[in-house]
Write a structure and sequence with these properties.
By secondary structure, the protein is of the alpha+beta class. It has helices at 15-30, 41-53, 70-76, 89-109, 213-219; strands spanning 32-35, 60-61, 80-83, 113-123, 129-132, 142-149, 162-164, 174-176, 183-187, 193-195, 202-211. The chain has a single domain, classed as Jelly Rolls (Sandwich), CATH 2.60.120.620. The structure holds N-oxalylglycine and manganese (II) ion (MN).
């Protein structure tokens, strides 16, 4: 048996393509994909360093689309976020990576993903995000959600799990620990999910692939 360099599987795929192929297969099969230790160190390490080094005033309290209702907002989510523009090297590398994933998924699944928006999120001790959907049916906006975790370590018992529910009725869900480099992807309209309160600071990067609504509005007439 020949020895292949670790980044190259025997199919000739890079580690990145192997991951992309796994995500595509999972999305096709079940609509979601959970991948521990997925992000490669050269992408993960700078993101982790960047998010830990960011000044607290770069983060803003996250909203729910009903920003003026502070009471409701506090009830639904307590995290703070910072949108990624590509100004930082780490943020730009993440956006590039997501762009390559977008192209791969469009080729493999014919999804027609058009754009990507993404933010860092910081949950302080006790912060949470109650059960929610990232998109609503018929609004033809967010198609696929991504979350990756930027914590140097995480153990069972520290809270902060993402709970991904299989559908609107599921009360049990699948618990995902926010361990370093874990990457979760799911169809935004299909899977309610929540973030449980954690004992310590919890860092993640979340992003959404959108459809081109102007084009899909013409191609798919309103039902
Ligand atoms: C979100 C979200 C999950 C997480 O930002 O919409 O659901 O695990 N985040 O951080
Ligand atoms: Mn969400």
């Amino acid at each position: 048996m020949p020895n292949f360099p670790s980044a190259l599987a025997d199919s000739g795929r890079t580690g990145e393509e192997t991951l992309f192929a796994r995500i595509a297969g999972d999305i096709r099969e079940s609509g979601y994909s959970i991948n521990p230790l997925a992000l490669e160190p050269q992408l993960l390490q700078p993101l982790m360093q960047h998010v830990q080094a960011m000044a607290p005033d770069m983060f803003a309290r996250a909203g729910t689309g009903r920003q003026r209702d502070h009471v409701l907002n506090d009830f639904v989510r307590r995290d703070e976020i910072c949108w990624i523009s590509g100004d930082s090297t780490a943020g730009a590398a993440w956006l590039d990576w997501a762009g390559r994933l977008r192209q791969f998924l469009n080729r493999e699944l014919l999804l027609g993903l058009f754009s990507f928006e993404s933010h860092f999120a910081h949950y302080g001790p006790g912060d949470f995000y109650r059960r929610h959907y990232d998109a609503f049916r018929g609004e033809a906006n967010r198609m696929l959600s991504l979350v990756a975790y930027l914590n140097p370590h995480w153990q069972t018992g520290e809270g902060g799990e993402l709970v991904l529910y299989r559908d609107g009725e599921d009360q049990e869900g699948i618990r995902v620990l926010p361990t370093p480099g874990t990457l979760v992807a799911f169809l935004s309209e299909e899977f309610p999910h929540e973030v449980l309160p954690a004992e310590r600071d919890r860092y993640s990067v979340a992003g959404w692939f959108r459809l081109n609504t102007s084009v899909s509005g013409r191609v798919d007439p309103p039902r």
